[in-house]
Amino acid sequence: xxxxxxxxxxxxxxxxxxxxxxxxxxxxxxxxxxxxPVSQPYSQGAMNLSGPHPSYSQQYGAPPPMQQVTNQxxxxxxxxxxxxxxxxxxxxxxxxxxxxxxxYSSAAPPSYTQAPPLSAAPSQPxxxxxxxxxxxYYGGPPPPQQQPFPSAHHPSxxxxxxxxxxxxxxxxxxxxxxxxxxxxxxxxxxxxFPNSAPPPVSQASYSGPQPQSQPGPPPFHSGPSPxxxxxxxxxxxxxxxxxxxxxxxxxxxxxxGMQGGYPTQQNGAFGQPRGPQPGYAGPQYPGQxxxxxxxxPAPAPPAQKRLDPDSIPxxxxxxxxxxxxxxxxxxxxGVKGQAPPLVTTNFQVKDQGNASPRFIRCTAYNMPCTADxxxxxxxxxxxxxxxxxxxxxxxxxxxxVDHGEGGPIRCNRCKAxxxxxxxxxxxxxxxxxxxxxxxTEVPPHYFQHLDHTGKRVDCYDRPELSQGSYxxxxxxxxxxxxxxxxxxxxxFFIDVSYNAVKSGMVNIVCQELKTLLDYLPRENPEADSxxxxxxxxxxxxxxxxxxxxxxxxxxxxxxxxxxxxxxPLLDGFLVGVNDSxxxxxxxxDQIPEMFADTRETETVFGPVIQAGLEALKAxxxxxxxxxxxxxLPIAEAPGKLKNREDKKLVGTDKEKxxxxxxxxxxxxxxxxxxxxxxxxxxxxxxxxxxxVATLGVVPVSxxxxxxxxxxxxxxxxxxxxxxxxxxxxxxxxxxxxxMRVRTSTGIRATDFFGSFFMSNTTDxxxxxxxxxxxxxxxxxxxxxxxxxxxxxxxCAVLYTxxxxxxxxxxxxxxxxxCSQLADLYRNCETDTIINFFxxxxxxxxxxxxxxxxxxxxVNQCAQILACYRKNCASxxxxxxxxxxxxxxxxxxxxxxxxxxxxxxPGADISLDDRAYLRQLLSCMDVSExxxxxxxxxxxxxxxxGGSLPMAVRNSEERLSKGGVYLLETGLHLFLWVGANAQQxxxxxxxxxxxxxxxxPNMTSLPELDNPFSQRLREIIDSFRSQRSRYMKLMVVKQxxxxxxxxxxxxxxxxxxxxxxxxxxxxxxxxxEIRQLLS
Length: 1078
Ligand SMILES: [Zn+2]
Description:
Blueprint: E1 3-4, E2 67-68, E3 203-207, E4 221-222, E5 240-242, H1 315-326, E6 331-332, E7 349-350, E8 366-368, H2 371-377, E9 389-391, E10 400-401, E11 423-425, E12 430-432, E13 439-441, H3 463-466, E14 469-473, E15 489-495, H4 498-502, H5 505-516, E16 532-538, E17 542-546, E18 555-559, H6 581-594, H7 606-619, E19 623-629, H8 665-676, E20 678-684, H9 692-695, H10 697-701, E21 706-708, H11 714-730, E22 733-743, E23 747-753, E24 764-770, E25 774-781, E26 791-801, E27 806-818, H12 821-824, H13 830-844, H14 850-871, E28 880-884, H15 890-898, H16 911-922, H17 926-933, E29 936-939, E30 964-968, E31 972-977, H18 983-990, H19 1011-1026, E32 1032-1037, H20 1043-1048, H21 1062-1077
Parallel strand pairs: 3-5, 6-7, 8-27, 10-14, 15-16, 15-19, 19-20, 20-21, 31-32
Antiparallel strand pairs: 1-10, 2-18, 3-28, 4-5, 9-25, 11-12, 12-13, 14-27, 16-17, 17-18, 22-24, 22-26, 23-25, 26-27, 29-30, 30-31
Helix pairs in contact: 5-6, 5-11, 7-8, 13-15, 13-16, 13-17, 14-15, 14-21, 15-21, 18-19
């Protein structure tokens, strides 16, 4: 038996995924695999290599002179402090936004028409278009009970095949495979859904000429349109959605029954130079918007109605449809080319040889076979390039595999690790690599016989032969200097300058650490953590503390020469918490007193990190520095910074310099940190500009995090800070990590996004990594791919666990390859595309003016949609906007990215906030980036039962004055209270029936004894538990000044910074697409 159960991580205080993972995968061949990894007890088997470590041999020289710490100060005072923070750092800003709701008052109500259902259509996503026979399960054998298609109509039909290896699923099980289609013409896959309203659409199309008699913009509807073009017979089963004529008018009405490709003659503007479209009644774009390169559209005729927002694709509806259709059955990863449920859907996962979507999501699950196909029809950074964000550590740990002294079995040539894509041959004596086809001998100890299908008989006993994700125990060959690693250390650096003390930060940190140190990460919940700790305080000098267990009191050593940082003590600096508990507690009690009356306002920053680095070097271990810092480091020292904040540069070509670090000092320091496995987490408590762009360099390059508490006040921000700190200290971590992505011949990983360092083009180096860090990888073609074999990716992360064990986490992923463009658009994931695009854009602003970045984004997305329209969509009026089903939300989400604070800031957002958000996004996973760009707005109506009320779209016009709404952005929570909210509702939530008596400064709701209050607080708690950062609650009363901050997140509306509304942007995209097609 070579697989052992995975130790349970401790403490499980946070649940990364609200939904359970079921990793049952293939059926166990013996009991050892039968347990769920989540509930496995810790095993002391071969896994427990490190255990508690003895302390270091301490052969260091005599300690330098020291001064005894004395209790000399009286208790500290927390003063009235700085101005009240308004949460996210947005200042109140006079609105320039006209009310919007009135504009739609006369719009026709939405009326959806359901297309005729397909006969015997299953309620499930579209099947692959290719015949099932050409889609073998790649290498990894599907287990006998596998359901290749989790169709609700075939819930209990097992996939039975005489040759489960490569045999095609028999036709009856497969959902209706559409005839081998060639596009164009021909509809994309049909996608019927069981719920009837509103209809699922496979093509969202709108616009087209509007008869002048139309009273208002007609609704978006599906199925054959009474007014729109009548679909040709081949479209009759297609649920094409036509938005009949809206404001995107053209001169001619749609041609019923139009056939024959893309009729350029349909539109008078086609083939002409770009210019105002006759009859174009699109919205006006203010000068500062300037999307793309085209001229502004002509002024709209005054009588023109605006496009009805209800008639355009709704994120809420898409999310809801996916939830209804895909949450009931587990998602099985064994079916290649199948897009998983959306990140907003709760679902279970069965690992059948591909990594769970919790670990890897792709922009597209069909890759083009050839680079030509990818290049010719799409822009270089297209969603057709697969870019899975890789969640490398999670709270649902995979199985651990130990291949013994020889280490993990690998391909001789490309070094890919053993995985379900290795094909055993010659009776099991050799295996052929799925990535490079090289044949490698099977070591004798790993030999196993094959069954009659050519599969190893122990296949289902071994996670590495049957699962998408697992871990190997790494041998000493995988360790730095061929030496098993020491357990990591945590070092706490506390700024004790005037601002840090006065804000209450120092006191809070010291009080909290006394408890928190008992919750350092560990793999065995029964044992003590092996992580050792050290403490330093600093302003413009550094104070090191000796907390050796034999001391009665901690000892302080001051290093005032910070120009060439050294470590003044070795013995007693890094200690075990239990060994030195009394001394540490005494120190943490004394620090706030010692500095309570400090007058020192200047700080250093570079020497702080240097000191931590030196300490880890001296101890020969990896570790993490927790730096609690308050000001711009202007004291004379390496890494000293100057205040370069200059708002005049915003919007100019020089703006990019503000996102770049001031000097190369911190980049160089990062390199040293990564080499040592020194990860830095930075907690900022600024009252003014601190240059996050520069201070964040080391955290971002070392796999660390930056937390920012602007205008920190103990009373109101304590909860948020402490929750962040607790989570940050406790979460499972890896250290000294290297990630390598291997691919099958034909594609390769070309670009990476995230918090890491790269010293070459292939190895992603992370001093630390945790469950909150995602790496996004871009793949490009370098050769032809085969439709038969698909494309394979293997992501391997070598790291040191928090118990000091060297491990390799492996994620495997196979996607389909296709030669038809239409297939590319069939299994895309818009949320992942947006994750990739936003990271790309946020990085581009380091070198490119933000306006250029925005224009490029619009152009790229327009090209993607134009390519679909040109090659895949059924013929229809040129005036119609036709969106692929999987990408119908691309415009609305893209608009949210474009008008985000980083790319299009309002006057009220600081440069530090923008730099902070930019860094934050770089390691977000798809779920986080989704809510970051499209927040969740919940009407608090009936809160009975366990389910949440259905969200509403992020627009002011969706708010009722009589209601109360909860808005979650991933970083903030707002409770918006309508001015006419029902008294009963207010009483239930706030304990008062009177609007005017609600205190807008409260950060938590009163604990009232009624079901509504209880349920609301439960919802808030559950939202918080799903996010990596604690969301502070802000109560916003309608028409209060703070409402502007709230409205900032209503991302379908026009923004005060000039960002377009969704409706306007969609019209603009349509224009861009038409220009590309002309
Ligand atoms: Zn190979």
